[in-house]
Amino acid sequence: MLVFRPVETDDLPQLQRLARHSLVGVTSLPDDTERSQRKVLDSCSSLKTDVQSPGPENYFFVLEDQDNRRLAGCSEILATAGFNEPFYSLRNRQFISASRELNIEHGVQALSLCQDLNGHTLLRGFHIEAQLERSAFSDLLSRARLLFIAAHPQRFAEAVITEIVGYSDDEGRSPFWDALGKHFFDLSYAEAEHLCGLQSRTFLAELMPHYPIYVPMLPPEARACIGRVHPDGQSACDILEREGFETNSYVDLFDGGPTLYARVAAIRSIALSRTAPVAVGSCIDARGRYLVSNDSLQNYRAIVADLDYTAGQPIALDSEMCAALNVCENSPIRVIEL
């Protein structure tokens, strides 16, 4: 059985294996032991902290196959983007220029460096092994974070964002980076993203141009990347769009990938999930497939399960499900249909 749970210090070697195979642009999953160790320790500390309002906390989760203790994926929540350092994006909006004398008014798209998304909760670090993409377990790895937010709302902001990895070719070349960022840094796109994963995006962002970049002045290849999703990131994007996330006027400053946004109250897994007590049983007349989680903090768990769910009634779970979720008879659990 595959179980979604908070990361533990013993997971570090396997996290490095996942990092080596992660998509270029997933900078929050660096192939660096020291950085990964800090991330794990930070997550463990965040779960032990008594939080009444969102702050710098970072929650890092893994998807584990309990039969062989192998990690099949990971994902992450940053409670407040921009809390410890600015969270930079490119705002993609139309600039209007006008001449009364010539009776001409003209609009042109322009990209502007900004910190508009500071203060939002950020979903990041999504990575799943290729054989599980577009499966129910891909939904589990992404959406169980949302059930965690539903269980602990005081820890998170009222709106959630995520940056979807933008387009790059098979050699790791990003036309958007080559047309823009590379003029300011003598680095390839892959090198820049790797550097951000090891250190911080802030110092690179602060060297980017602080004046508007007029989109028509970019090469056609680069313009085509604005808001474009990398093919390997499309399934992660699709999951969140089904949750109610929408694109907005912000894109990633390195590869031009889209930023998705949703109010917490409008996110499907948060708004429609329901809690009910457990009824331990050995035979389940399954009528649907659900994501199921406990509402714990440090011992948070979530799984995919075939259940017979009726609103307002206890939910029958077998012993294997109960063990995976660390629950027993009458324990509260949260469910949302896949």
TrEMBL record:
A molecular function annotated in GO for this UniProt entry is: arginine N-succinyltransferase activity
GO BP terms in the entry: L-arginine catabolic process
EC id: 2.3.1.109
The UniProt entry, under InterPro entries, shows: Acyl_CoA_acyltransferase (IPR016181), Arg_succinylTrfase_AstA/AruG (IPR007041)
Keyword annotations: Acyltransferase, Arginine metabolism, Transferase
Matches recorded under Pfam families: AstA (PF04958)
Output the Gene3D superfamilies linked to this UniProt entry. 2.40.40.20
Which PANTHER family does the UniProt entry name for this protein?
ARGININE N-SUCCINYLTRANSFERASE (PTHR30420:SF1), N-SUCCINYLARGININE DIHYDROLASE (PTHR30420)
Full protein name? Arginine N-succinyltransferase subunit alpha
Its lineage opens with: Bacteria, Pseudomonadati, Pseudomonadota, Gammaproteobacteria, Pseudomonadales
